[in-house]
From TrEMBL:
Keyword Transcription among UniProt keywords: no
Official protein name in the record: Aspartyl/glutamyl-tRNA(Asn/Gln) amidotransferase subunit B
PROSITE patterns (alphabetical): GATB (PS01234)
Class of the enzyme per the UniProt entry, highest EC level: ligase
Assembly and oligomerization: Heterotrimer of A, B and C subunits.
Gene3D superfamilies assigned to the protein according to its UniProt record, in alphabetical order: 1.10.10.410
Originating species: Actinotalea soli
Family annotation (NCBIfam families): gatB, PRK05477.1-2, PRK05477.1-3, PRK05477.1-4
Annotated EC: 6.3.5.-
Function: Allows the formation of correctly charged Asn-tRNA(Asn) or Gln-tRNA(Gln) through the transamidation of misacylated Asp-tRNA(Asn) or Glu-tRNA(Gln) in organisms which lack either or both of asparaginyl-tRNA or glutaminyl-tRNA synthetases. The reaction takes place in the presence of glutamine and ATP through an activated phospho-Asp-tRNA(Asn) or phospho-Glu-tRNA(Gln).
Length: 503
């Protein structure tokens, strides 16, 4: 076999000649207070090896006891993904030796997952909906964390020594496995990203995990294969492990498609193997040749009784499920009357919650969108921060819009009020008072300003009297200038006409 690596094939070129198939395995760390099979804490960031018990250390004679909260979370996830929930299922031992697995086996589920045969609709950036079929969602425990010290790459090869932290060993995980996703063509990378993103949103909506990608709460393994045509049998897949950002999921799939096309073009075959993703260079490299299931000598876990969730309990859990993110988005779009493109911009800007709270605080949906996607989006961009991190609350934007609706400030003044709020000068009401920004509709003050403007432009008065309303605008402009934009323009127009008739 030649040792040279075939060149990558340009992505569009690869897609024009091959049909990609993807499959995604997502691991989510559940947010339970204690581990899957013992009472050790799951708190993030503790000193290494302080959150362990004889069970999570695999000491002889230590017996596991299943965490009910973890089972409930797994059922919630299964139901949210439209799965069947097993009436009875068992744990299995997946046997292998590695220092981060102190028992020399991982307690997992194998052929009896708690949830199976589901589906979830995901929405791509342009609004296209793709249905992803779920093969199963099963419970398992996390392994400990190895740290390889002294090498250049942080991997075991070239390291001088390794450290193991068992704090993570035994933290409950749910692994969700898709059926092969076919028929998505050049959108495969985007589908993979949108799918993981949708799951993250669901985990958060269900409140089963903090689902923070950067902490590794959610990790994805992406399987990719190519075939010559959509009619051909599935090709050999590779599994790129532990990709932990949305963007990396998309890039990893894209890269694998280009790489495998190169391998096939060179007349070789794709090796079924795990691969590592390299964030910095955007490439994958070979890991280990994939073990077959039989290598793990799976057998039923004798120390745990089967899990048999009653149908009543499952229905109780189903009744507590919150609205799912995609359905919620659709409902809000209808309620708010936004066009598809407007809604998409709102979603991409992460502004749904902000607008929802602004509307709850009394602003019309159109006005709420105008503030968050206009003035505030520009400010956030200039400051280089997220919308949600701006020093203004949706309640304050709601109050500001109410001032506009009541005619107490006009659009221009409202922007000045907002600037005051952003500068930390207090609530919109407080800024109006402190800066004296209210619209002047008090006739006394306006009359004086109108008379002054009329006196300065006698020719205009003549024209208006002659029936030409056009120049009224010039007088209003002069009054606005004199009142620093605070005059009530409608009232000024009325006064001008009255004065001219009287005069
Ligand atoms: P493993 O134990 O090897 O991780 P799993 O069954 O847990 O296997 O997951 C395999 C994933 O790969 C699933 O999402 C499955 O749909 C997907 N898959 C299987 N065959 C192919 C293929 N030929 N091409 C792409 N994805 C595939
Ligand atoms: Mg797997």
């Amino acid at each position: 076999m030649s040792t040279t690596t075939p060149p990558l094939v340009d992505y569009d070129e690869a897609i024009s000649r091959f049909d990609p198939v993807i499959g995604i395995e997502v691991h989510v760390e559940l947010g339970t207070a204690t581990k899957m099979f013992d009472g050790a804490s799951t708190e993030f960031g503790a000193e290494p090896n302080t959150q362990v018990t004889p069970v999570s250390l695999g000491l002889p004679g230590a017996l596991p006891a299943l965490n009910g909260k973890a089972v409930e979370s797994a059922i919630k996830i299964g139901l949210a993904l439209n799965c069947e929930i097993a009436e009875l299922c068992r744990f299995a031992r997946k046997n292998y030796f590695y220092p981060d697995v102190p028992k020399n086996f991982q307690t997992s589920q194998y052929d009896e997952p708690i949830a199976f045969d589901g589906w979830i609709d995901i929405e791509l950036d342009d609004g296209e909906v793709v249905r992803v079929e779920i093969e199963r969602a099963h419970m398992e425990e996390d392994a400990g964390k190895n740290t390889h010290v002294g090498g250049a790459t942080g991997r075991i090869h070239g390291a001088e020594y390794s450290l193991v932290d068992y704090n993570r060993a035994g933290i409950p995980l749910v692994e969700i496995v898709t059926r092969p996703i076919t028929g998505v063509g050049d959108r495969a990378p985007e589908v993979a990203r949108a799918y993981v993103q949708t799951l993250r949103d669901i985990f958060r909506a269900l409140d089963v995990s903090e689902a923070r990608m950067e902490r590794g709460n959610v990790r994805a393994d992406v399987n990719v294969s190519l075939r010559a045509t959509p009619e051909a049998p599935l090709g050999t897949r590779t599994e790129t492990k532990n990709v932990n950002s949305f963007r990396s999921v998309e890039r990893a799939v894209r890269h694998e498609i280009s790489r495998q096309a190169g391998v096939l073009d060179a007349g070789r075959t794709v090796t079924q193997e795990t691969r590592h993703w390299h964030e910095d260079t955007g490439v994958t490299t070979a890991g280990r040749v994939k073990s077959d299931a039989e290598d793990y000598r799976y057998f039923p876990e004798p120390d745990l009784v089967p899990v048999a969730p009653s149908r009543e309990w499952v229905e109780e859990i189903r009744a507590t499920l919150p609205e799912m993110p995609v359905a919620r988005r659709r409902r809000l779009q209808t309620e708010w009357g936004y066009a598809d493109a407007e809604m998409r911009d709102v979603v991409n800007a992460g502004a749904i919650e902000l607008i929802e709270a602004t509307v709850a605080a009394g602003a019309a949906p159109a006005a709420a969108r105008k503030w968050w996607m206009g003035e505030l989006a520009r400010t956030a961009k200039t400051e280089g921060v997220e919308l949600a991190d701006l020093p203004v609350t949706p309640e304050q934007i709601g109050q500001l819009q109410q001032l506009v609706d009541a005619g107490r400030v006009n659009d221009k003044l409202a922007r000045q009020v907002l600037a005051g709020v952003l500068a930390g000068e207090g609530s919109p009401e407080e800024v109006v008072t402190a800066r004296g920004l209210e619209v002047v509709s008090d006739d006394g003050a306006l009359l004086a300003a109108v008379d002054e403007a009329l006196a300065a432009q006698p020719d205009v008065v003549e024209k208006i009297r002659g029936g030409n309303q056009g120049p009224v605008g010039a007088i209003i402009g002069a009054v606005m200038k004199a009142t620093r934009g605070q005059a009530d323009a409608g009232r000024v127009r009325e006064i001008v006409l009255e004065r001219v008739q009287q005069g």
